[in-house]
Amino acid sequence: MTTLTPTTAAGAGRTARTERSPLALLGHQIRYEQLSFWRNPQSMVFTFVLPIVIIAIFGAVFSGSADDKFFFGLSGMQYYTPTIAAVSVLGACYGQLAIVLAMRRQTGVLKRLHATPLPAWVYFTGLLVHCIVVSVVDVALVIGIGSLYDVPLPTHWGAIMLTLVLGAASFCALGVGVASLIKNSEAAPAVVQFIQFPLVFISGSYFPIHSEVLNNIAGLLPVKPFNDAMLAPFAQNSGYQWRDLAVLAAWGVIGALISVRSFRWDPRPE
């Protein structure tokens, strides 16, 4: 019978650890996040049903309306389809991620993950890819519902995809940053909504903002640039909105810096 000494055990652990490449680990983590999401019917349904319900309600209200100065020369549905799509990305990549991370920390899941050989960058990249996949599905559903109300399809798909990926990455970084500041999972929804709701409303997601001062302020925050970068190629036949994308990227960097400095794997002692 062979005795496994600590030295040989450590060697065996290193061998097992190197059996999978980082890309294989990343693929496994993405698959885990996807399975966890799709096997949770309640979370899945509300993630996709809420934006569909909202855009359907707006469709019932504004269907057949002509272009209007109130919507900056667009019809109501041309305005709301991209902005509601943007809200769905914000919810999937910022709101849900911050709450999920706070819950996983509180229940000890993050602590156990941190004790495994899984690199931190693989874990967070897996979360990012998962959020992008969910966001793509959300945006596709909203666009599909919008098309039922005669909203033309986007003209610049490259700009849409770049905006979607950059927005998802930035909001994920901000979600992780906010999760780092949440003391316990019970407070997570309140903290997330306290930040998200004012940003959504002053950014013109649910109704156009005609105040120049408020638009200038909101333009320096992450949500309005994302709305505008989605709106331009979707409804205004414009391409890449580099200024808005730069603001989004800057907020992503800020969120990443907060995350790196403040993120905790262990629950905070009460």
From TrEMBL:
Q: Which domain of life is it from?
A: Bacteria
Q: What is its main location?
A: membrane
- Residues annotated as coiled-coil are none
Ranges that cross the membrane: 44-63, 83-101, 121-145, 157-178, 190-209, 245-263
Query: Quick check: keyword Transport in the entry?
Result: yes
Please report the organism this UniProt entry assigns to the protein: Streptomyces aureus
Keywords for this protein? Antibiotic resistance, Cell membrane, Membrane, Transmembrane, Transmembrane helix, Transport
Q: How does it sit in the membrane?
A: Multi-pass membrane protein
Homology family = Belongs to the ABC-2 integral membrane protein family.
What protein name applies here?
Transport permease protein
All residue ranges annotated as the ABC transmembrane type-2 domain in the record: 42-266
Location(s) in or outside the cell: Cell membrane; Membrane
